[in-house]
Design goal:
By secondary structure, this protein is an alpha/beta fold. 28% of the residues lie in helices and 26% in strands. The chain has 7 helices and 12 strands. It has helices at residues 2-8, 53-56, 89-95, 140-154, 179-194, 208-213, 233-247; strands at 11-13, 16-17, 27-29, 44-47, 62-65, 72-75, 80-86, 112-120, 123-131, 158-165, 197-202, 219-224. The chain is globular. The N and C termini lie far apart (56 Å).
Length: 248
């Protein structure tokens, strides 16, 4: 049932939404404030960190800062709600993860446990997924540890993960353009073997290998359907001006 809720489109993950969404996004969840993850649409943004001024220059979102380590509840009705629980660095260390995930970004990113609950008749459904909105080429072992930890902690209630997928990049500490693509495929397959489903988040697009994996696993692709800050012409101009000023 949590997968159907994710597919509904009510909640975006960064700028990513299911292509079969029946609702317009009302909320967006982000683990960090890099410009390629922050929607420009007027959505209610939930995040464990404070936005930097360089982002607020382009978009001033209404956001709620969710406390790290605590479970934050968002009610949709008297019978339905979802929860967000950021996993802070102290908790990561307890799990055996010493470094911040995606620390090539200044503050890194914060993994978030997303829960969904709905009451139907006298029965209540409860399910959880792990959401990691970005990672580096040296984060593979950390994400596998997180998945294994979630399996132990939540048992059958832990149903899936949401992870970004890459086609090729020279960033994110990658030693060659294919390294991050290879790692994201490895992580998708690792999670798919253990869980009911995996959501592949376009970063910025969905590679062909994701559709190949759908033949063998429950892998769902979420496209980047929302405009994000890095898409803005004014942002691109400012970035170009910064590069030119450094050259001078």
């Amino acid at each position: 049932m949590i997968l159907e809720f994710l597919k509904s489109g009510l909640v975006a993950f960064g700028g990513c939404v299911s292509p079969v969404a029946r609702l317009r996004p009302r909320y967006s969840v982000i683990g960090h404030w890099d410009a390629d993850h922050v929607p420009t649409a007027q959505l209610e943004i939930f995040t464990p960190s404070k936005p930097p001024e360089k982002i607020l220059k382009y978009v001033d979102p209404s956001y709620r800062k969710i406390p790290v380590g605590e479970r934050y509840r968002i009610s949709l009705s008297s019978r339905e709600f979802f929860t967000l629980q950021p996993i802070g660095q102290k908790d990561l260390v307890r799990i055996g993860i010493e470094k911040r995930i995606h620390d090539s970004s200044i503050a890194g990113t914060v993994p978030i446990v997303f829960g969904y609950s709905r009451k139907k008749g006298s029965k209540r459904y409860q399910g959880y997924v792990l959401y990691v909105d970005d990672f580096d080429a040296d984060d593979g072992d950390a994400i596998k540890k997180l998945v294994d930890y979630m399996v132990v902690k939540y048992g059958v209630y832990f149903e899936g993960v949401l992870l970004p997928v890459y086609e090729g990049t020279s960033g994110h500490k990658a030693r060659h353009p294919e390294e991050l693509a290879e790692l994201s495929r490895e992580l998708i397959e690792y999670a798919a073997r253990k869980l009911k489903f995996v959501v592949a988040l376009a970063h910025p697009s969905i590679p062909l290998w994701v559709y190949e994996l759908q033949r063998h696993h429950e892998v769902v692709a979420f496209d980047r359907d929302l405009e994000v800050v890095c898409d803005l012409d004014e942002y691109k101009k400012d970035q170009e001006n910064r590069k030119n000023s450094k050259k001078d």
